[in-house]
Amino acid sequence: MAASIVESGSIDLSNALEDRGLRRTAARSAVTGRIEQLNDAFTAENLCRDLPDVGRATVYRTIRHLVDAGALCKLPILDGAPMYSIARVDHHHHTICVRCGAVGEFRHSTVERVLRSLEKEIDGDIVGHRMEIFITCRACLGDQHAIKKTSR
Amino acid sequence: MAASIVESGSIDLSNALEDRGLRRTAARSAVTGRIEQLNDAFTAENLCRDLPDVGRATVYRTIRHLVDAGALCKLPILDGAPMYSIARVDHHHHTICVRCGAVGEFRHSTVERVLRSLEKEIDGDIVGHRMEIFITCRACLGDQHAIKKTSR
DNA sequence: CTCTAATTGATACTTGATATCAATAAATGT
DNA sequence: ACATTTATTGATATCAAGTATCAATTAGAG
Ligand SMILES: [Zn+2]
Ligand SMILES: [Zn+2]
Ligand SMILES: [Zn+2]
Ligand SMILES: [Zn+2]
């Protein structure tokens, strides 16, 4: 059930696919390899550009498998394409730098406690939640000349 | 500075536009009127369908103005077009029914307290946040035959 | 090595949204 | 009321993100 965990604590992406009964192919290895090489969150188009020899459809399909497997988090961005980041710990939330797009993770038990206390107040059954904190990251605070990494 | 407030506590949409120096036109009144008539969150395409005599560009432009004015909340949905809902109170978060798409609002001071306590932990300056709770709403719990309202 | 089912990727298409720009309508001043 | 100016409109073209199709290829089982 639980996917393989590598030293860093994050899920091994190829194994995550294999665990779902998917074949190990060159195209999928190219995609997972590239994602693991990246340290930051990325968009599907980023990957397509980085991997011109892998078809767009395959890039999108592989990302979808990884999200379904829980190995990638899909972060809806207010305008434009969603970003993806490797899910390094089990349950967490994200920080997103509004200047450079860098994505971080945080865990805070209080967030979950808030949910439990809201259960009374909310007119229905809670089935999930999402929280993002928008920040100006340390790097961007120190660099007045920062440019959006995700060039569009 | 603060936009006009009507009895219900929500912002009057036409006034919100006027407050931004925009002209009061028939097309804009049609859009704001329709939004106020709707009780639920909606997509841009919903409005276009409901208002065939208003050009798509105008519908999208008017929505953008209303979001900029803070009169509408834009809710990024994981797949597909964002939904919009009237901002009824100043600062709040949203519940989204995963079955029917109904959007609600909630306020909880603990959420804001969590943020303050995270300030130490987060590597940068917090500039904003977003939280959504996914629910099965009361109506959907009682109705096994519920159909997604947002037909696609 | 063979066979079968899964996978790939070029292409066409869909959807959501924006840019263009001539025609129209709102505000302003006379 | 009328002329002038400027904002607005909306048909159309275009863009962007992502999916469907499907013949050709390839992985994995036997
Ligand atoms: Zn994550
Ligand atoms: Zn940054
Ligand atoms: Zn519901
Ligand atoms: Zn809040």
Please give a structural write-up.
The structure is a homodimer of 152-residue chains. By secondary structure, the first copy, chain A, is an alpha+beta fold. Chain A has two domains: 1-88, Orthogonal Bundle (Arc Repressor Mutant, subunit A), CATH 1.10.10.10; 91-152, Ferric-uptake regulator, C-terminal dimerisarion domain (Dna Ligase, domain 1), CATH 3.30.1490.190. Chain A contains six helices and five strands, in the order ααααββββαβα. Chain A has helices spanning 13-19, 26-37, 44-50, 56-68, 109-118, 138-142; strands at 72-75, 83-86, 93-97, 103-106, 124-137. In chain A, strands 4-3-5 form a three-stranded mixed β-sheet. In chain A, strands 1-2 form a two-stranded antiparallel ribbon. In chain A, α2 (26-37) crosses α4 (56-68) and α3 crosses α4 (56-68). The radius of gyration of chain A is 17 Å and the shape is globular. The first copy, chain A, starts with 12 loop residues before the first helix and ends in a 10-residue tail after the last helix. The A-B interface holds A 74, 76-78, 82, 95, 97-98, 104, 106, 108, 110-111, 113-115, 117-118, 121-138, 140-141 and B 74, 76-78, 82, 95, 97-98, 104, 106, 108, 110-111, 113-115, 117-118, 121-138, 140-141. β5 of chain A pairs antiparallel with β5 of chain B, so a sheet runs across the interface. Residues 73, 85, 87, 92, 94, 105 of chain A line the site of one zinc ion.
